[in-house]
Design brief:
- By secondary structure, this protein is mainly beta.
- About 5% of the residues lie in helices and about 25% in strands.
- It is elongated, with a radius of gyration of 23 Å.
- The longest helix has 6 residues.
- It has 1 helix and 3 strands.
- The chain has one domain.
Length: about 110
């Protein structure tokens, strides 16, 4: 069921980490009935990611090319929170307890023939 105080439109980052709602705010519907909380009433935290790659193509021979690559994922190293736990029986209900990968840098070479 929907919480009695209504549902706010958005939450800040700290609320996602510390818990959006206590599980006690959601009364369980009577057995054999459906609750009144509409589908997709909650959204997960925002996700923003910027990736970058630099590629240099080098020709060695007529039919042999070497491609040097420098790639960075999550360039700004922004912390992106994972999904909020929606299990009422869990002690972490309403909290985002995971994060996506931090900045990753990789170098590579590719031989094309």
């Amino acid at each position: 069921n929907a919480p009695s105080g209504g549902i706010p439109g958005s939450f800040n980052r700290n609320q996602y980490v510390n818990g959006v709602f206590p599980a006690s705010a959601f009364p369980l519907p009577a057995p054999g009935t459906e609750g009144n909380l509409k589908r997709s009433a909650f959204r997960n935290p925002n996700f923003a990611n910027i990736d970058m790659s630099l590629v240099k193509n080098n020709r060695f021979r007529e039919h042999v090319n070497v491609q040097l690559r420098f790639e960075v994922f999550n360039v700004l190293n922004r912390v992106n929170l994972g999904a909020v736990n929606g299990d009422l029986a869990s002690s972490t209900f309403g909290r985002a307890t995971s994060t996506f990968d931090p900045r990753i840098i990789q170098l590579g070479a590719r031989v094309l023939f």
